Structure formats: C-alpha cells, structure tokens
Amino acid sequence: MFSRYHCRRSLTKRVSAALSIAALSVAAFNLSLCAVAQTQQDAPSSGSSSADYASLLSPDAGGSASASASPSPQYGRRSQQQYAYHSYRSHFAVEAGGGFTAPVLDTDTEQTWGWNATAGVGYKIAPDLAIMGEYQFVRTGIPDAVLAAVGEPGGNVHTWSLTLDPVLTYKNTGSWGGYITGGGGFYRKLTSFTQPVEAIGQYCDFFTCYPYYYTTNVVVSHYSSNQGGFNIGTGLTFGGWNSGKFYAEARYTWLDTPGRATEMVPVTFGFRW
Q1: Residues 266, 138: contact at Cβ < 8 Å?
Q2: Burial class, 80, CB count within 10 angstroms (exposed 0-12 / middle 13-18 / buried 19+)
C-alpha cells in the first residue's frame, strides 16, 4: 500500500516539474518575441534610412542637400579650366637654334662660309600647321680676292631678317618627324671692311698698373642695304620630350640685294616646341 502511494506521489512530482519547465520556457520565448518587436519598432528601418540618405544627395532637396550636391559642378568647372589651359599651351610654338651658312651660286664669289643663329615664336593652327615669326642672324666672311680688290685686309658680312614662315608637318609621330617651311619678310645686309689696329690696354693689381698692347679690327668702311627676301626649306625632328623636338633643317634663302641677289643656305640645329 505504501509502495503504490509512494510511486504515485513520485510520478506526480515529475509531471509537475515537467509542466513547470515547459511553462517557464513558453514564457521566456514570449518575452523574447516581445523584446525583438519592441526593438524593431524603436529603431528606424533600413528602407527609411536609405531613403533619407538618398534625399540628402538629391539635387532637389534643400538645405544641406544643396551643399552636398555643390562639389560636383565645382569639379566640373575645374576640369574645364584645366582643359582650356592645356589647349592654350598646345597652340604655342617656339624654336631656337644655330648652325653654319653656305653661300651658293654667284654669292660664293662675294662671301665665304659662316654661322647663323635663329629664334622664333608662333601659333599652331592645327597639330600639323603653324605660323612662325622668325629672327635670323647670319655672319659670313669676305673672300681674299674681294679684299685685295678693295685694298682692305679684312671684312665680314652681317645679314639679319624678320620673316613670317608657315611650317607644315608631314610626319609628327614616332621617334622622328619631318616638315617643310618657307616664307618671306624683311632682310638687312651690312658689309664691313676692317683693318687691324694696335691698341694699348691697362692692367692694374693692388700696387700699380701695367700697360699692354693688343690688336683689334676697326671698321674703316661699310655698305648696307634693306630689301625683301624669301626662304624655303625642309627639316627633320627627333628625340626631345613632351611636345618638344630637336631639329635639323636647311633653307634656301634669297635676298633682293642691289646689283646682284644674295643666295645662301643656312643649316640650323636646335630645339622646337
């Protein structure tokens, strides 16, 4: 009798404990669901956050949205300014060089070989076409036969010019290029005859001065002429950096000097950009 009662009591305790655990589990689960629901209700949804962020970036929104959208036009204006500056530089052309000059045809009886210096600036109408304003100075000697005929021991010929010269490039890609050029303008030619003269100089140190003698050429007579002329030639470009290139060119130059035309070929080496 006692045994049966004891077993029933033990079974009742176990069932009561199981029911209590189940009830506590259900209550805890319900509390968890309530907490999650409350958290979602209090926090902003991801969709509304994206919408709010998009509204800040929208150009139609006011206030801070306009400030956020303003950098884009500023960057656009800056790019246009940089492009305009680069475009301006790409139209600018400059050259400088020097070399030797050879008289040709009948001029070689009146002048000897000499040297030249050239400089120019211009405007590039297109990548393969430029208009250059050039200054050139040429110095040559006078043959001994001419000096003997005039009775002077020495002399020289100076020719300088200001010309307008188009430059047409027929190859401007790769390691080398080529161009043709020619033009005309104003030429001035000055022929001078000289004689050597002894002169006295003076050298001084901390204590005293000492005389010394030296020889210099003095112009005793000269002849000048102003006239028009033209030039035409071709050149090659190579090396360099960016848009600049080294160049070598030769031009036939004709001057309408009184009595007989002056003809020569300056050969020039330099840099053009």
Answers
A1: yes
A2: exposed
Site of tokens 């020889």: 215
What is the Cα 172 distance to its own chain's centre? 16
Paired tokens of 266: 């300056």
- Bridge partners, residue 224, by sequence: 190
Q: Which residue has the tokens 């211009």?
A: 122
Amino acid at 211: P
Q: How far apart are CA 206 and CA 227, in angstroms?
A: 54
Which residues, at least 6 apart from 136, have a Cβ–Cβ distance to it below 8 Å? 116, 117, 118, 119, 160, 161, 163, 266
Listing DSSP states for 7-30 in one string gives HHHHHHHHHHHHHHHHHHHHHHHH
Indicate the burial class of 161 (C-beta count within 10 angstroms; 0-12, 13-18, 19 or more).
Answer: buried
Looking at the DSSP assignment, which residues form a beta bridge with residue 187? Answer: 161, 227
Tell whether the torsion through CA atoms of 44, 50, 56 and 60 is positive or negative. Answer: negative
Per-residue pLDDT of the chain (273 residues; tens, 9 = 90+): 444 444 445 545 554 555 555 455 545 555 455 544 555 555 454 444 444 444 444 444 444 444 444 444 444 444 444 444 455 667 888 999 999 999 999 998 999 999 999 999 999 988 889 999 999 999 999 999 999 888 888 899 999 999 999 999 998 777 888 999 999 999 999 999 988 887 787 778 777 887 877 787 788 888 899 999 999 999 999 886 767 889 999 999 999 999 899 999 999 999 988
d(CA 214, CA 203): 12
